[in-house]
Amino acid sequence: MKLFVREDFAGNWHGKDAFAEADKLEGEIFRQVKGRRTLRFKREGKSYFVKVHPGVGWAEIFKNLITLRLPVLGAGNEWRAINALQALGIPTMTVAAYGERGFNPAHRYSFLVTDDLSPTVSLETVCARWHDERPSFRFKSQLIREVARLGRELHSNGICHRDFYLCHFLLRCTADGQVDESQQPHLSIIDLHRTLLKPFFVARWVKKDLAGLCFSALDIGLTRTDFLRFMCAYTGKSVRELMRQELPYWREIQHKANKIWLRDRHKQARRLHKRIYNASESVSLQRSTGKFALVNKHLWQAELQALIDSPDALIKKAQMLKDGDSTTVVSLSLAGREWVIKRYNLRGFWYGLSRLPRPSRAWHCWGSAHLLQEAGINTPQPLLMVENRWGPLRREAYYVCERVRGKDAKLMLDHEPPQSLLWSQALDLFEELFVIMRRQQIVHGDMKATNFLICPQVEGTPTLEVVDLDACRLELKPARFRKYFSRDLLRFYANWRHHEAAGKISQLIKKMGRGL
Q1: Domains identified in the chain, total number
Q2: Maximum Cα–Cα distance for the chain, whole Å?
Q3: Is 225 exposed, middle or buried (0-12, 13-18, 19+ CB in 10 A)?
Q4: CATH code for the domain of 36
Q5: What gap in Å lies between CA 466 and CA 341, rounded to an integer?
Q6: Cα 210 to Cα 143, 179, 207, 307, distances in angstroms
Q7: 90 and 136 within one domain
């Protein structure tokens, strides 16, 4: 058994079982997974964090061994890592209490209590604001150099964090959570649960650390110069020396970071797919003989059931917006709101036959609408997706969403001079849209100007709504995304190729396509 309790923390633990007392602690839970519970609690006016490890179990141990990884059995690894960092003078947590008991590695009980480092804010939170509020050049440069210095100190002493992400750097701030950019940034490293001390193949783990850090910084608006600044500060070499001596090494790190990003996006896509195509907190599933329907719980009312039971009867009574061979679009008022119903027709025998085994276009629209909303892109709220089926085979399909009151971009901008306020606002809106699409690797597939609605506001700038999501999708393979996103940009430019504003649109397209 191992036990350490700091004198000023001991308090009413004197003469009691410290392990039982640690298990009784209650507070704000930050994380609770199998084998670990993390919470913040207060005691005698001070704030602390406690991690309680009741044991990982044999299944977790064997899973790690099979994948050639050493299992982390409790709080002991973090205790040793904190002591190692403090010995090097690297700012980190301070231990108030630590205990470990039990010989069975699968059921070894341990706990670790550390002082709360408040007032601090995670670097991930700070950098997430940079898209809207650009930091001062001086502050950003200081922050990059400080992160590089801490990384160099760790790795040069054979310590690998293994969760080396921006969220595990805490930046000192004011009591109200504001960051003073005029001050030299003070960073602390936390979450040393998986840290490796003097590992075998240390170079491999250093690469993984740097790739993880690069991955977490991919989406915060850093430039190539910023990354070069980090590399120079980390290695202590000039740009010329880096280019001559270490370029292949850093390219490999970038490749690893891109692989982590791709893996993360795959996980997000799977979670989204599971949530929106199955019964969940926000989606209900109605299934009957020959019919499959997904319903948005937040918008659903009993009066809307007719949209599932007899959509064709309602379409006949509704206002026709488009009557094409492949798609029929109508507008309908029901339950006090306006809806747009899209029916995807089977135009001809052979076309219908080819669509039978494939997900319908309504199915794709339902998924794309949720994908865009997750990414922060405005699109009409999806209400319903219905497929007529023969067992697993699809026939006609229906997609229902809210009707947005706005005018399509082609109609609004065609007769406006390029110097007008509306053109300026529209270009800003489209740039914001393209930035998100590029960052999230989303392809629209049909960038006609009529598929974008500009909605004027009583006060402030108008909003942009993206519609017609039949071909919209997530392209996770970088080469495919570059290909189809470039097509999107060229198709967008074609809308106003002969307009006076073509020069401004061309500049926007070049800006968005740079580096693809």
Answers
A1: 4
A2: 85
A3: exposed
A4: 3.30.200
A5: 16
A6: 16, 25, 5, 53
A7: no
φ/ψ (deg, to 5) at 74: 175, -155
For 505, phi then psi, to 5°, come to: -65, -40
Q: Which of 204, 235, 268 is the last residue of a domain?
A: 268
pLDDT along the chain (516 residues), means of 10: 85 82 87 84 89 84 78 88 95 93 86 92 91 87 95 94 94 88 92 87 90 92 90 93 91 92 90 93 91 94 92 92 89 92 87 85 95 94 94 91 91 88 92 91 93 84 92 91 94 92 92 78
* Residue 506 to residue 179: CA distance in whole angstroms: 38
> Is 277 part of any domain?
no
Residue 327: in which H helix or E strand, if any?
A: strand 327-334
Residues 362, 341: Cα–Cα separation, whole Å: 10
Q: What gap in Å lies between CA 394 and CA 380, rounded to an integer? A: 25
Tally the residues of the chain.
516
**Single-letter amino acid, residue 65:** L
Sheet of 291-296: strand order equals: 283-288, 291-296, 382-390, 393-402, 337-344, 327-334, 319-323
Q: Is 274 within a domain?
A: no
Give catalytic residues, as residue numbers: 163
How many Cα atoms are found within 13 Å in the side-chain-facing hemisphere of 499? 21
- Of 344, 369, 402, which one is at a domain's C-terminal end? 402
Q: 206 to each of 118, 123, 249, 300, how far by Cα in Å?
A: 29, 20, 11, 51
User: Are 448 and 467 a contacting pair, CB within 8 Å?
Assistant: no
Q: How many angstroms separate the first and last alpha carbons of the chain?
A: 57
Q: Please tell me whether residue 87 adopts helix, strand or coil conformation.
A: helix
Q: Are residues 396 and 414 in the same domain?
A: no
The verdict on 361 and 482 lying in the same domain is no
**Domain-embedded: residue 146:** yes
115, containing H or E segment? strand 109-115
How far are the Cα atoms of 219, 329, 349, 409, 513 from residue 484, in angstroms, in the given order?
Answer: 21, 27, 30, 22, 11
The closest of 431, 410, 403 to 495, measured between CA atoms, is 410
Q: What number of helices (H) and strands (E) belong to the chain?
A: 18, 23
Residues 259 and 324 in one domain: no
Q: What is the extent of the structural domain holding 450? A: 407-513
Give the Cα separation of 504 and 46 in Å (integer): 57
What's the confidence (pLDDT) of residue 516? Answer: 65
Q: Are 293 and 285 in contact (CB under 8 A)?
A: yes
Alpha helices in 191-223 (DSSP H): 202-216
Same domain as 208, residue 288:
no
Q: Which residues contact 43 (CB under 8 A, 6 or more apart)?
A: 9, 11
448 and 340 together in one domain: no
Matching residue, tokens 């690297």: 90
Classify the C-alpha dihedral 6-7-12-14 as positive or negative: positive
363 in the same domain as 251: no
- Do the domain assignments include residue 70? yes
pTM of the model: 0.81
Single-letter residue type at 490: L
